[in-house]
Amino acid sequence: MKRTLAILLAALMLLTLLAACGNSTQPVPTQPAATAAPTPAKTEAPQPAQTEAPAPTEALAPTEGPAFQIRGDDEPFTITDMGGREVSFDHAITKAYAANPMGIVLIETMNFDLLGGYSGKLSDQQKKFIPEKYWDLPNLGAWSTATPTANIEELVNAGIDVILVTQLMTEKVKQMAENIQSQTGIPTVLINTSYDGLADSYILLGELFNDPERGKMLSDYLRAEVAEIRENAAKVPESEKVTFLYSEGADGLETDPEGSFHTETFSLIGMLNVADVAENTTNGFVGQSQISLEQIINWNPQYIIRNFSGTGTSDNVKASDILADPDWAGIQAVQDGYVYQTPALPYNWIDRPPSVIKVLGAKWLGNLVYPAYFDYDIVAEAKEFFRLFYGWELTDEQLNNILAASR
Fold first, then answer.
1. Is residue 44 a contact partner of residue 257, using CB atoms and an 8 Å limit?
2. Could you give the CA distance from residue 180 to residue 129 in angstroms, rounded to a whole number?
3. Residues 274-320: pLDDT tens digits?
4. pTM across the whole model
5. What is 235-402's CATH number?
6. Nearest one of 79, 295, 114 to 189, comparing CA atoms
7. Dmax of the chain from CA atoms?
8. Which class is domain 2-11+72-231?
9. pLDDT per residue as tens digits for the range 338-363
């Protein structure tokens, strides 16, 4: 967090000097104002066959300043997206949409006023955070499952100028972007939302949405914070790494294995995934391989991280349900009380969607399982994150409520 503040102060000083020395009077569009867990007791547990942890990457220097001038509203432009495709536009973007919730969060955090519609319905819980003026934006559906729910006619009628397609840059995802563009007649832009691509994604969004200064500010924050998380994870000795089950689905009996896009945050901080299953590829981009309680008992993880939704669904098994269920009682994580829900508002902090908020989630998770190596004041970190990315001033009470089942 200190590194982030230093970067932001340096950026502010540079902008002040440029304003004093420059002779251009062209206005720049304004943006919305950027408004410890207990140390777990060590227990012996069977360890899975350990795979070599990813080597930490060297911290990248902050990006250089914007490489283009602010455009006029009616000025045509062309960008190169993160899949290497050239995409052209006749005028400035006034309404944007994304094929999945990851991209919706990108638009919201870059400029909420440009969001032309959601890819799903807002819950009452989410409305406690999202300003009321955005509640009635249309639900335009999504392309993120085997059965897309997006309505092409509604997209066209909503006046959408661009559709973000966010995922890893695989050939499958690139083809999806081409298919969406062909079906709708609306330009699509590929965005890499992996940890390695997040910082650069905001540079691209700054170019796309004609606000390079905000794009660079958020990019520099992400570059610095992800580098710091990698540095912390590199300090964890192999002998202290913990095993975990990522519990998904309504009954907690679905999961994703090591190497999945959905378990990227666990890998980032050096947790060891016990799930010896193949990734589910039968349901589009969803994943969530079916498992049995007998498999979990055999794997015997030290931690169970329960993916939980902020959409208000009450039927899903909670962490407290797992802890109280005698069928789960023989598992080490349950015996030690190390079953936690992911923070889930305004969107999940870890996965589903694995949006930019996962950077904050990595800090929460690192604090939870490796408190000797991750030492974040998670409430302060969350306040800074939501102030920078959403312009919100969250209170201690709001954040303590979000984290109630997560620590």
1. no
2. 31
3. 999 888 876 555 678 999 999 999 999 999 999 987 544 446 899 99
4. 0.82
5. 3.40.50.1980
6. 79
7. 72
8. alpha beta
9. 999 999 999 999 998 999 999 999 99
